[in-house]
Amino acid sequence: MKLARDTWLVLQRQVLLMWRTPIWIVVGITQPVFYLLLFAPLLKKVLAPMGATSYAEAYQIYVPGLLAVLCIFGGLYTGFSLLGELKAGIIERSRVTPVSRLALLLGRALREMLGLVVQAVIIMLVALPFGLRVEPLSLLLAFVLLALLALMASALSYGIALALPNDAAMAPVVNTVAQPIGLLSGVLLPLALAPVWLQEVAKWNPFYWAVEGMRALFSGHPGDRVVWQGLLIVVVMTTAAVFCSARLFSARIR
Amino acid sequence: MIETKGLRKSYPAKRGRTVVDAVRGIDLDVRAGEIFGFLGPNGAGKTTTLRMLATLIRPDGGAALIAGADLLADPAGVRRRIGYVAQGGGTADAVTGREELVLQARMYGSRKAEARQRAADAVEAFDLAEFADRPCSTYSGGQRRRIDIALGVIHAPEVLFLDEPTVGLDPVSRGQVWAEIRRLRTGGMTVVVTTHYLDEADALCDRVAIVDHGRVVVEGTPEALKREISGDVVLLGLAAGQAGPAADALRGQPSLHRLEPGEEGLRLYLDDGAAAIPQLLSVLNGAGIVPGTVQLQRPSLDDVFLARTGRSIEQS
Fold first, then answer.
1. Considering its fold, how many domains does chain A have in total?
2. CA distance A8 to chain B (A)
3. Are residues B283 and B158 in the same domain?
4. I want to staple B55 with a disulfide (CB 3.0 to 4.6 A). Which of A45, A56, A133, B75 is the partner?
């Protein structure tokens, strides 16, 4: 199928470009590892009210949030690379070829997803010595969720990049979008610690459900209601985000 | 090879509701196997026209047939038949020219082995071997341009569009780019270039459309266009305030066709400039005017533009 072939073509090139820019990989790996090593030790005491008595339990609560925030924020910032490619004429060069327009978008979003999933794997590996253990099935589901989050956030970010009339507006807009999403999904600390009104507000944030689902998976409850709820919400939102960005992409960039 | 009728495009202006008409109705007939040039000052609508023909922007109105494919009804068909090289190129810094060539061929649908072969052929044909396996970030302006053009024709299109192909190049690279374009024409390709360089339009193009304010002002071979400006051009360098009296004195001279105020004096259009100069000087002497300098020139495409629009390309 042409779409699959073209997407694969774009993805391959995007991965090659990432591979050739090692600074990108270094930053992408060190940042989350710092979070894990320098921030997580504070957590044992903070999370005690939630029943965390050991590092392993604290990590079970913290790591899924960290992974989710990594994928959401990492994805949201990827629009900047699209702006760069637009400016360099790379997108335009592709557009005069018969390559699928959707593939130009999907290939890039999938590269972002791949990069973020690799970062998530590294974090999991670093967390192992601290006693974090997750069952294989739950882990698999958690990574499906993460991959979808990354894809959704990237698609959203491309949409923002395409919709804004001015490149300079990208940074403030993304920051303004990312901050409440992050705070209201309880990514760094569970919202179970929050007052009731804040929990009620958070329920309107789809990312909150994704993070709750991740936590249930990490604490060994793959059958929990929030798991399939989170998955369902994320699947719907990812589809919508990809669809909207693709529409914008083909309208703006024929 | 390319036929357009009334091609139009306007953009909303930055603020307010006013509309900028970038292209106001362009009719063209580009023949197969020729180098066709759009000549005009910056902002004349050349690039917009080229981008419309290359399917990058949708025209507001009009019609175009490119290599037999309808621009509005079948943009995908147009894309298969054309190549397009933007003014800024479009290579990624971290990959090599050869990698870009392979990717480009694959985007046009070639399988892996075929794409590699096409890239190898392009490296050979465009003489890129010296730098094709280095990252694009290391290229000089001329090298980058040659890769850009090789990318534009990797699928052997019938028509190639080049937007300002030699902007910012040194004279040697410029000559190389011209040679490549001529070589492509010899191979049977139709090439359309935009340029605001008079000498480029004159030396490179078989036919030229002079564009101003989104319209084709005049079209023809450079020779025919210049022949319209009959005879020669004589430039008189005059002191400030003397241009008016000199023009009054010279009007009515039998050899003089037209007279335009120039930068530092007058531009006179005459049948046989060399023979007319002594007579002109004696007339001016009679009026008490002594020109600082006198130059005799063959008419250029700028004189054509000046005659049609009242402005000079180089000044607009």
1. 1
2. 11
3. no
4. B75
Highest mean pLDDT among A11-20, A221-230, B260-269: A11-20
Considering the domain architecture, whether residues B70 and B185 belong to the same structural domain is answered as: yes
What was the pLDDT predicted at B18? 65
Contact A94 B107 (CB under 8 A): yes
Q: Are strands B159-163 and B82-85 parallel, antiparallel or unpaired?
A: parallel
**Positive or negative: CA dihedral A47, A50, A51, A55:** negative
A6–B83 C-beta distance less than 8 A: no
Contact between B149 and B180 under an 8 Å Cβ cutoff? The reply is: yes
Other CB atoms within a 10 A radius of the CB of residue B29 amount to 13
Distances (CA, A) of B108 to A205, B79, B93, B103: 43, 9, 21, 9
CATH number of residue B97's parent domain: 3.40.50.300
For B156, the domain range is 2-226
Instruction: Give the residue-averaged pLDDT of A64-87.
Output: 88
Whether B26 and B79 share a structural domain: yes
* ipTM computed for the complex: 0.80
Structural domains in chain B (count): 2
B6 lies in the same domain as B124: yes
Among A94, A96, A99, A253, which would you mutate to test the B interface (most chain B Cβ atoms within 10 Å of its Cβ)? A96
Q: Read off the pTM.
A: 0.81
Tell me how many helices (H) and strands (E) chain B has: 11, 14
Q: Say yes or no: B87 and B169 in one domain.
A: yes
Chain B residues touching residue A89 (CB < 8 angstroms)? 86, 88-90
Q: Which residue of A has its CA nearest to B83?
A: A96
Report the chain B residue with the minimal C-alpha distance to residue A103: B107
Q: Which residue has the tokens 């970030």?
A: B137
- Taking the CA of residue A237 and the nearest CA in chain B, the distance in Å comes to 30
Q: What is the pLDDT of residue B223?
A: 83
Domain final residue pick, B226, B249, B265: B226
Q: How far is A6 from chain B (nearest CA, A)?
A: 7
Cross-chain residue pair B86–A17, CB shorter than 8 Å = no
Query: 10 Å Cβ neighbour count for A54?
Result: 11
> What is the nearest CA distance from A158 to chain B, expressed in angstroms?
19
Dump pLDDT digits (tens) for B140-171: 989 999 999 999 999 999 999 999 999 888 99
In sequence order, what are the residues at sequence separation of 6 or more whose Cβ sits closer than 8 angstroms to the Cβ of residue A252? A162
In terms of domains, do B87 and B188 share one? Answer: yes
Residue B211 covered by a domain: yes
Domain that holds residue A140: 2-252
Evaluate whether residue B308 is within a structural domain.
Answer: no
